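During the reporting period the student researcher (J.K.) took over the structure-prediction task from the postdoctoral fellow and processed the backlog of single-chain submissions. One of the processed entries is reproduced below for the supervisory committee.
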Amino acid sequence: MKFMKLGSRPDTFYTSEAVRSVSSEVSSDLIIQVKGSRYLLHKFPLLSKCLRLQRLFSESTESSSHQLIQLPDFPGGVESFELCAKFCYGITITLSAYNIVPARCAAEYLQMTEDVEKGNLIYKIEVFFNSCILQGWKDSIVTLQSTRAFPLLSEDLGITSRCIESIASKVSTHPSKVSLSHSHSRRVRDDVSCNGAESQRLNQAIKGWWAEDIAELGIELYWRTMIAIKSSGRVPSKLIGDALKIYASRWLPNISPRDGNVYKQEGCDSDADTTSGINSKHRLLLESMVSLLPVEKGAVSCSFLLKLLKASNILNASSSSKMELARRVGLQLEEARASDLLIPSLSKKKDTLYDVDIVLTILEVFMLQGQSPPTSPPRSKLGFERRRSRSAENIDFELQGSRRSSSASHSSKLKVAKLVDGYLQEIARDVNLPLSKFIAVSESIPEFSRLDHDDLYRAIDIYLKAHPDLNKSERKRLCRILDCKKLSMDSCMHAAQNELLPLRVVVQVLFFEQARATMNGGKMTELPSNIKALLAANGIDPSRPTAPLSTTTSIPADDQWSVSGLKSPKSTLRMKLTKDDDLDINGMNPDGIGRSSKFKAFCAIPTRPKRMFSKLMSTNRTPSEKK
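J.K. obtained the following structure tokens:
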């Protein structure tokens, strides 16, 4: 840290009976009162250098030997005034980055300019400020911090802007070429002297050597400094993002939902006002940081963006800040983890634990990124009630159009599908989560992105256990999102024994499991006793052997499936069941299980495989078997 000494006389100021005076052979003739402190001084040394005191003295009507001049609004208080008074007496004073701002403001207030006397205090301070303070890194930061006590005067005198420009110009410079403090310079030299793997590891840290130092600034000065750094265009956006992360960890607390609601809890009014003030301060800090985020994708991690989004919910930040964070998260959603998406919901209108709406917005942004309107069908804002009953041809067409118009890669969509299923497993435990929102989240990604439905099945199972009051219609609606063809062997075994699932889903699982076993030349696994009893209660004989694979098997016209339908990835048994949701409305048993003949015939489909399976098996048989 650099400093400058002015004057050569020893300090002769002393205090007597709460009055500050200076030792002199000449009796004092001037009384100056500064914010409750009284000084007994001399007219000549002060009036000869301070134009303001000259004017106040000339305007005074007092005729006493000791004229009184009051300075109630003196910038910097008694410390700054005494420094200026000592300069007028020629007493040695020391200027540094810690006191140069109040000294400059005090000199400006007293009008200690060159018009009054050559080599006055303002001139000397400006020379020291430009030649020494602005040339040093730490000096510039300390001086900038001290302007917070005098914001208006510092702006008018150009101190704030000059410090910011100095800091911004040094950020893009290698630390070895910047005038740093002794301890900081030694640390940087030690880092630079490292070689090998450690040197490469520290290379990035050396490039961002400035981030920790400017993180000491308040949010207003930090915001202006970062704007200047970004405007220079010489600092990579990745370093800007790293600097913001350091600043957030320094000033933004690790807020929990409980902390965010402190001011809503019962307590004294003073505590509530204090907490509200702290939240307002943090809210301003958060919104300012959002406005500083680099526009480049990947400049900040998705995890950091989601932490900011969680904080914005807790601190009740502006909707524009929330939407901007959601948009940025959506552009790099494949980097997120399921736990990162668990954003607490503090709205009084919602009873859910997590803010599912904002996650739906994030997923919408992810799916729509890069899409052009002509090739993209319109989609609802949150899509709570979106249903997928499109043909295979339409899906193929939309998939091709999506790949052409979206910048989200196929691999990214596969990752996000796993992410969504993991997120569904987390929010499914919320007893207040509406079924419509669970389905909306599950349907927010294209079906091709789910290579298997095991994780989705686990989420559905968790939701059914957490919501035992779902009626039969709601359970059917929930299970329509499940594609049993994409379940693994273990998931099929679990689903076949899951009494929470609708019977139609269990039959569907058994059908595809039998078809898979038949195509692989294997045998169906023995059914659990409870499932056998459930099937038997509906008039289905679970012990009946499977009919031979024959092309002449007779099937009622109403229950036949076309071969093209079996080949279509969308024309699954789930679509057939969707059309037949009302089969069990008539002929209900007291236990609520339907017995209609159409339902029995439908459930008997697994015992009569179709023509395509017969062709597949006939190609695998030996000539002797064919005879």
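The committee noted the following: The domain at 3-135 is CATH 3.30.710.10 (Potassium Channel Kv1.1; Chain A).
J.K. will present the remaining backlog at the next meeting.
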